[in-house]
Write a structure and sequence with these properties.
This protein is mainly β. Helix content is 9%, strand content 35%. The chain contains 1 helix and 8 strands, in the order ββββββββα. The strands form 3 sheets. It has a 4-stranded antiparallel beta sheet with strand order 2-1-5-6, with no helix packed on it. A two-stranded antiparallel ribbon has the order 3-4. The radius of gyration is 18 Å and the shape is rod-shaped. The two termini are 19 Å apart. The relative contact order is 0.21.
Length: 86
């Protein structure tokens, strides 16, 4: 299940990226349009929420085929060792 976006630069999470327009000092187009983190303008990634702890996962995760649950590395290790959910 996809959750929110996480900034790869500042680490903050947000629901929607911000559209930025860079004019580079020009009075008329062409301008540079891009999307980025609404806090710092940095690059971002769509995250998947861990079904155990609810934290956003950026990068690799474990998906259990029989249930469809997704786990971050830490929660998966705890499950595989037989410990309770965090």
């Amino acid at each position: 299940m996809y959750g929110e976006y996480t900034c790869l630069d500042c680490g903050k999470t947000f629901d929607d990226p911000k559209r930025w327009e860079e004019r580079h000092g020009l009075d008329s187009p062409p301008y540079e349009d891009f999307s980025g983190c609404p806090y710092c303008g940095g690059a971002y990634a769509r995250t998947i929420l861990c079904d155990a702890c609810g934290e956003p996962i950026v990068g690799d995760y474990v998906k259990i085929q029989t249930t469809g649950d997704c786990y971050c590395d830490e929660c998966f290790m705890m499950k595989s060792l037989g410990e309770d959910d965090p």
